[in-house]
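Ligand: flavin-adenine dinucleotide. Inputs:
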Amino acid sequence: MKIPACRLADLPRGEAFRLDIDPPVSVFHTDDGELFAIDDTCTHQDASLADGWLEGCEVECPLHASKFDLRTGAVDAPPAKLPVRTHEVVVEDGMIHVRVSTDAPNLPPCVASRLAGGTA
Amino acid sequence: MVGASLAGLSAARSLRKQGYDGRLVVIGDELHRPYDRPPLSKEFLAGTLGEADLALEAQDEDLGAQWLLGTRATGLDRADRAVRLADGREVRVDGLVIATGAAARRLPGSDGLAGVHVLRTLDDARALRDELARGGRLVVIGGGFIGAEVASTAYALGLDVTVVEVAPTPLAGPLGATMGGIVSGLHADHGVRLLCGVGVKGLSGERCVDAVLLEDGRSIPADIVVVGVGARPCVEWLEGSGVELDNGVKCGADGRTALAGVVAVGDCANWYDPRAGAHRRVEHWTGARERPDAAVATLLAGGAVVPGVPRPPYFWSDQYGVRIQFAGHAAGADSVSVEEGAVDDRNVLAVYRRAGDPVAVLGMNQPRLFTRWRKQLAASTS
Ligand SMILES: Cc1cc2nc3c(=O)[nH]c(=O)nc-3n(C[C@H](O)[C@H](O)[C@H](O)COP(=O)(O)OP(=O)(O)OC[C@H]3O[C@@H](n4cnc5c(N)ncnc54)[C@H](O)[C@@H]3O)c2cc1C
Ligand code: FES
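Predicted complex:
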């Protein structure tokens, strides 16, 4: 599934765009000009990684500082313990698209139970 | 490594990451493997996280260290370069990372009275969680972050909660009086009583606590009391060792101490902060996690590195479903202004300035803007 996100011209370097699908996905434009897409929700708790601290090819969760590698989704150290999914980014005619991974996401317990229709 | 919690574990990781492949011994007086403390007053106390969730180590993590857990360090012999242990053993060291953290302050005369708790360790949290589950009237002594979080968790569990704070405004130290008042307004928003400007004279009760006695003569009935009156650095074991002690271990801007080959990190360490131009003992998670990198670099280089400027101190707190984040130093600010959101909605971004320059930022439910400001603070003063 290829989903249009935003125009490349509207996403400056150092910024992120959050795609409000379920679960949300974020596209990061690094300072070096590369584009990466990963799941937006931290695997520790309900935090949006688009709100995080982008440095090089890593984004630091805005809450408790676990860092995710944008290339692989791997997390450096707890409190988050599981990686985020990565997604393929395609730019066509100046438009950024995300091809969403078919793997199961690693959502934090509070969000997973909400999506499953439980109480959060 | 003495102290097997966040700062000690982070230092062990930094050592391996920075290429140290020699022998590594981690000494800790708790029996547990390193665990995360912040949830102890939040999700763990509320019962939504279990003990396994608190682990700070990844499942397959192996630092190739020897762990001496349940073992207290009682002294440092500088001539022999050895750490003395409570069981009489000695561990000779070439380099030492002091990461013994802090211990909860207790109320004098409260020992032995059932129903009275402090909250610092997993064992403390287990005991308090079990007691909160029985319900009743809770009095929290101290309106600081841990006290406020316990109050918020207990409120959500359905207890009748009162918070007693000796200062006129809670959190005025870390947040300044204006924002301290706003953040502690969360108690009243939820019908939790907050009594300010009144000290505690003592506790009453025979075997179990039954009331908290205030200096103004009032008596607040209580089934459970949580004493949240701060923490003191665990550095007694270093007395006479040559390591300089002053509100914890006195350190340079990279954790170096008065003794060569000895660094200190985490809650026990009073680092020189070049931004503040003074020593500051930072008792926050992120400092204990990040600063060991610099301290270990110094240790491995034999002190021959020029310390960088660490990021401004950062902490978070979760109370009544509101995400509170703070970075920088509020002390020394001459103004605070709300840049976004509204105080009444408890959804606010406030910037502290000194002579027009931003020195600190506070967010309530504002993670995106908060991170921007936090980055800006780090960039502007480094
Ligand atoms: C309930 C609670 C909630 C918190 N919430 C937050 C939060 O929301 N946000 C935030 O930023 N921070 C929070 N903190 C603070 C954060 O947890 C600490 O800053 C962090 O744990 C400091 O890590 P440390 O390794 O320096 O010290 P500690 O975690 O205190 O660990 C020190 C370790 O050393 C051991 N030790 C002490 N003396 C000796 C000795 N002589 N020999 C051997 N071992 C010894 C201790 O037993 C302990 O295991 C919270 C703390 C508590 C207690
Ligand atoms: S929510 Fe991301 S590290 Fe905690």
